[in-house]
Design goal:
Elements (H helix, E strand, L loop, with lengths): L4 E4 L3 H12 L4 E5 L15 E3 L7 H21 L3 E2 L3 E5 L8 H11 L5 E2 L2 H7 L10 E5 L3 E3 L1 H14 L3 E4 L3 E7 L2 E7 L4 E3 L3 E3 L5 H4 L7 E11 L14 E4 L1 H4 L1 E3 L9 E5 L4 E2 L11 H14 L8 E12 L5 E4 L6 E5 L9 H13 L29
Helix pairs in contact: 1-5, 1-9
This protein binds flavin-adenine dinucleotide (FAD).
The site of flavin-adenine dinucleotide has 38 residues, from helix 1, strand 2, strand 3, strand 14 and strand 19.
């Protein structure tokens, strides 16, 4: 069977695109070592934050505005995987110009949204798990929440298969063959060759292994994730406790309420992370990570300070140097497109990702694509994602 396009990678970037391209009439196959959703994929998790807040960056907010309708529709189709419980973004000092929370708050107002600003007393009254007086400013925004990402990928894989996409788990791409500057086939570690004129590399944090020319602008960074069993579950259940960022650009810490299925409170750090090799390095949370975490809990959520950690995970970002996605056709090889660089914030855009990436494959104009174009990034380029803790 010849496919019009081979998609390398069955994470959220790959699967959403498979659905869109199949709907546009492309005979589409997805390769992945599997099983799917792949246990080490960034997309495979119990929860991911859906937030509009991106500081002064209006495009990301606009893209989430467009995604929210899709999440609500997917809830009707796949069941309640998007929990629209809102988000809280609190600061230890009063919000100030230039700060992630302040600029996000201003952008929300400017775009007609209705965040509720809260002071220290209001925070304690409405969200009693927070240590009184530790956080003195910030806001609650009703639009947003979290999605059960692994289940979303599962549901989309089923939808893709039902629409005719060939999901080929157990296949690891090792080479994109080309002739005369044009893609001719994809070869796998398992010894198979898939003739095609189009290949999409959506291999997440493994992308630069397949395309080493991207290694100078894309790196794998590992981030600690903790799952706790609270002694007082009601204190950490919505609406008493919802998706939060805790002065995130200064600390990196963010988290979720008690998970309705997994029965744990998940808290993670959106910092610079640990540089790792996606295939060869161990993915573990260190004693130092845990010490930092306990210190954060003691200063922020006293009722969790001694809570048992049920399990941890070090999950890998596909980090571009500027932290913007990489979605574009290859400048020299015809038929080759790359969609990667989620940089720790790509999942929330899933409802719009498929068409965005399909437009890139087809060379169509899309107002959101220039931000993600194939670009030269100097080695000293710094990250621009406003909520990221960079020190
Ligand atoms: C700890 C953590 C927390 C995050 N939190 C959030 C959040 O709260 N909100 C949010 O919006 N985003 C968040 N993200 C980011 C988000 O998860 C990613 O941007 C997104 O999931 C990336 O999807 P992907 O499809 O590019 O990669 P992945 O999901 O990693 O999928 C890549 C796939 O490619 C496959 N693959 C790799 N190499 C090959 C090969 N050679 N051949 C075939 N297949 C291959 C892999 O098996 C895998 O299935 C977070 C990420 C991490 C790591």
């Amino acid at each position: 069977m010849n496919y019009d396009i081979i998609i390398i990678g069955g994470g959220i970037f790959g699967v959403t695109t498979a659905v869109s391209l199949q709907q546009r009439g492309w005979r589409t196959a997805v390769l992945d070592p599997g099983p799917l959703p792949h246990p080490l994929a960034a997309s495979t998790d119990i929860s991911k934050v859906v937030r509009m807040e991106y500081g002064t960056d209006a495009q990301y907010m606009e893209m989430v505005e467009a995604s929210l309708g899709g999440w609500r529709q997917w809830n009707e189709r796949f069941g309640p995987l998007f929990h629209e419980i809102g988000v809280t973004m609190f600061t230890q000092q009063p919000m100030a110009p230039g700060g992630f929370e302040y600029e996000s708050y201003q952008m929300l107002l400017k775009r007609g949204h209705h965040p509720e600003r809260l002071n220290g007393d209001e925070i304690s009254r409405r969200f009693p798990a927070w240590k009184p007086g530790a956080f003195v400013d910030g806001f609650y925004h009703a639009q947003g929440g979290y999605v059960e990402s692994g289940r979303v990928v599962e549901a989309l894989i089923t939808q893709a298969q039902q629409s005719g996409v060939a999901i080929l788990a157990g296949q690891t791409a090792v080479e994109i063959a080309q002739q005369g500057g044009r893609v001719t086939a994809v070869r796998t570690q398992e010894g198979d060759t898939f003739p095609t004129n189009h290949a999409l590399v959506a291999a997440g944090t493994w992308t630069h292994l397949l395309l080493p020319e991207l290694a100078p602008v894309m790196k794998s960074t590992g981030h600690p994730v903790f799952h706790l069993k609270p002694a007082q579950p009601e204190l950490f259940t919505a609406p008493n406790f919802i998706v939060f960022t805790a002065d995130v650009a200064r600390t990196g810490w963010y988290g979720f309420p008690l998970h309705p299925r997994e029965g744990v409170v998940k808290i993670a750090n959106h910092g610079i992370g640990l540089r790792l090799h996606p295939r060869d390095d161990e993915r573990v949370v260190t004693a130092q990570d845990e010490q930092n975490f306990r210190a954060f809990l003691a200063a922020t959520f006293p009722a969790l300070a001694d809570a048992p950690i049920v399990y941890t995970r070090r999950c890998l970002y596909c980090d571009t140097l500027d932290e913007h996605f990489w979605i574009d056709r290859h400048p020299e090889t015809t038929g080759l497109t790359v969609a990667a660089g989620g940089s720790g914030h790509g999942f929330k855009f899933a409802p719009v990702l498929g068409d965005l990436i399909a437009d890139a494959v087809e060379g169509k104009v899309n107002p959101w694509l220039p931000k993600f174009r194939w670009r030269n990034l100097a080695a000293q380029t710094t990250g621009e994602e406003a909520s990221r803790h960079h020190s």
